[in-house]
Amino acid sequence: MEKHHKSRRQFLQHSALSGVAMMTSLPILASELTKNKVSTLSSSMLKPGGEFSNYGTPSPYEKEVIRWISANSDVPGNGVSWTPLHELQGTITPNGLHYERHHNGVPDINPDTHNVVIDGLVDKPLNFSIHHLLRYPQHSRICFIECGGNSNENYKTSPSQASAGYAHGLVSNAEWTGVPLALLLNEAGIQSSAKWVIAEGADAGALNVSIPIDKLLDDGLLALYQNGERLRPENGYPVRLIVPGWEGIVNVKWLRQLKLSASPAMTRDETSQYTDLQPDGKAQQFSFEMQVKSLITSPSVGMTLPDNPGTYQVTGLAWSGIGKISRVEVSADGGQTWQDALLQEPILDKAFTRFSIAWQWHGQYAILQSRATDESGQIQPTREVLIANRGKYSYYHYNAIISWEVDELGDIHHVYA
Ligand SMILES: Nc1nc2c(c(=O)[nH]1)N[C@H]1C(S)=C(S)[C@@H](COP(=O)(O)O)O[C@H]1N2
Ligand SMILES: [Mo]
């Protein structure tokens, strides 16, 4: 009760953005009730409803809410599908809409014959069937996974007009359940020289990456469940690695081997890709932690504001691979002035946090932006600062402030501000 009261007060304090009068009450958006409306039964009440189903699917009226696929036709099985962040609310990504990044398509793996091997610098190499893994104590945690290449169109010189999710939706947030890796690695017996773990997937390209062992001992998970049900094939069925807050590539799907080693393996995917080219032409490797980031999901590019004047809930998502989100500020004037948005609880470590703030629009030109800060004190940079630091040939780890321009007609465009 107390908490509720506080957030209501906080909401009122932060309910208006600069340049507009503070609101004390919300406008009524519903149309007036007519007598006729309640005395007539709606058509759905005139006969029994439809069939039950063994496994549910979304309402047919929601058929536009889909992942958007960008596949590379030169390389079969290589591509991505984007989470429609601009169509979703709350913080949990439904399993059918979790983004996908495949280097070699989605393998068909029978859980009865699949194994995960732990070997290399261990006292006793172990081989786990899925049935073995299911008998271990399981742990659940909510976290995001973000591809290191997410938002990378924003390095280009002209701003893309793709919907928010189709430009920034190589990030999703789910509850993952599985066996803590510390348990399994300790069972195998970690030799003192083991500093890295080379994780390999059972897809056609045998995707493999090197991960510092300390991170896996800290919070690495062998996930078997995704939002309560077994993993989706696209997301690594029957077992994947979850490395909370670290770039997508290390979250190896269809996991078949963890090889403990004294040094990284320098695999294809940690040398030719997912590295950060610096202004001096050298590439930085192993930038694992995803940096603090946020995005206004609604209203956002491609949408039109229906009422002028009108009150709008500006809402979006913030996340950081370093810890919890501590603050999200929103600007309606391209970053000249900022107001704190309300953060929806619970605020979880390395997970999506939903923010919102009410905004009164009077038909004026506006640039909406959000700027997140995490508990380590990192603040989302402007695009200008990010590019000055990284150089213009950068390709991965884009986390700069994103700007939505609202024109006098209420149409919204993506701009670099
Ligand atoms: N075996 C395997 N694991 C993989 C990949 C892959 O192609 N094969 N793609 C990686 C990349 S680049 C990312 S961003 C994430 C994407 O996870 P998702 O498809 O479940 O969203 O998985 C990673 N794990
Ligand atoms: Mo990725």
TrEMBL record:
UniProt superkingdom: Bacteria
The protein's Enzyme Commission number: 1.8.2.1
Gene Ontology biological process: sulfur compound metabolic process
Cofactor: Mo-molybdopterin
Stretches assigned to the Moybdenum cofactor oxidoreductase dimerisation domain: 288-399
Keyword terms, alphabetized: Metal-binding, Molybdenum, Oxidoreductase
InterPro entries per UniProt: Ig_E-set, MoCF_OxRdtse_dimer, Mopterin_OxRdtase_euk, OxRdtase_Mopterin-bd_dom, OxRdtase_Mopterin-bd_sf, Sulfite_DH_SoxC, TAT_signal
Zinc keyword on record: no
Residue span(s) of domain Oxidoreductase molybdopterin-binding: 103-265
Keyword Oxidoreductase belongs to the record: yes
Family matches, as Pfam families: Mo-co_dimer, Oxidored_molyb
PROSITE patterns documented for this protein: TAT (PS51318)
GO MF entry, a single one: sulfite oxidase activity
NCBIfam families named among the record's database cross-references: sulfite_DH_soxC (TIGR04555)
Name of the protein in its database record: Sulfite dehydrogenase
Organism: Methylophaga aminisulfidivorans
Organism phylogeny: Bacteria, Pseudomonadati, Pseudomonadota, Gammaproteobacteria, Thiotrichales
Gene behind the chain: soxC
